[in-house]
Amino acid sequence: MKVLVLGAGQLARMMSLAGAPLNIEVFAYDVGTGNVVHPLTQQVMLKGLNTAITYSDVITAEFEHIPHEILDICEQSGKFLPTTDAIKAGGDRRLEKALLDSAGVANAKYHLINSRDDLTAAIDTVGLPMVLKSALGGYDGKGQWRLKQREDADRIWPEMAEFMAQTDNQAIVAEEFVPFDREVSLVGARGKNGDIAVYPLAENTHTDGVLSLSVALTGNEALQNQAEAMFRSLAESMDYVGVLAIEFFDVGGKLLVNEIAPRVHNSGHWTQQGAETCQFENHLRAVAGMPLGSTALLRPTAMINILGEDRLPTDLLSHPQCHIHWYGKEKRPGRKMGHINVCADTQEQLDSSLATIASYLDPAAFPALKR
Ligand code: AMP
Asked: Ligand 1: distance of its center to the CA of 75 in Å?
């Protein structure tokens, strides 16, 4: 079984590692260079997208900001999963909001902005404070503004207008500011036969809009059931096949969807050591038409993102339940370079292990860890 992944980053790399034991060969199309590469070595394997499409049995994606021309070519081959519409919705907040509404899934109140008049209308309908998000190209908190007072609208409008003018078909989605208690996410898979298997929710901490810590949650049955029902509605409404991640705001025990990722997700990396089958294997199983693997939690687990660092104290590996995953990337400030999965036998032990691991690490580089 040969799976072509659009995108050649760490997610394709981890799919490749997870696919090998099942004899699933993963190769990656680097959308930037147009090369088809091996996801681990980045060595060029094939020339051109069309050759790769012919060579593959299934095509999938590891990110959503993919030119529509490329998605359309893949769609025509009849090999693309989950669906190219799902990928397009993941890359355009307008389509994403429409999808959430049509699936009847609760999300933050919003208004679309294309002009200064729309901004006034947004203030009237959504209310203040509000979060303004670019429709295209927004991820990890990029392309976002906060508006607290009506008087500030004239001040931020020129910046928003200039931002929109830089990209074709750009717009801004104004969203009510949600006073959430915490952020959680659900990662799950839907198979070709419609079977669904979801992982336990993870509680996520973001630093400057970027995920820094995810902890698998245990014992939250009501919240888990709520998230699972929303997952089911969304996945079934799209006839989705593969892993889908949903990010939520938890507001007093009621979940509101923040955004979706039609792919394996950073907040699901803990599944590599903490679940019976990891999200990468389950995505491959789903798109290959195999039965889904169990998503059961094996033990309390957390994931710490390594951002902008290419070295960690080697002593860290002497910790018996600490697993480091590097992505083999060149160091750049803030770049996702790898992650650390930390497991424990009990929740209390996980907290104490996280504190021990934090003591080895630079607080400036790992601010989400309690010390
Ligand atoms: P996003 O790129 O949409 O995930 O936004 C990045 C981060 O901004 C989220 O993880 C939240 O912490 C925060 N955020 C986004 N939208 C809202 C909102 N409507 N209300 C409050 N905080 C938000």
From this structure: 31
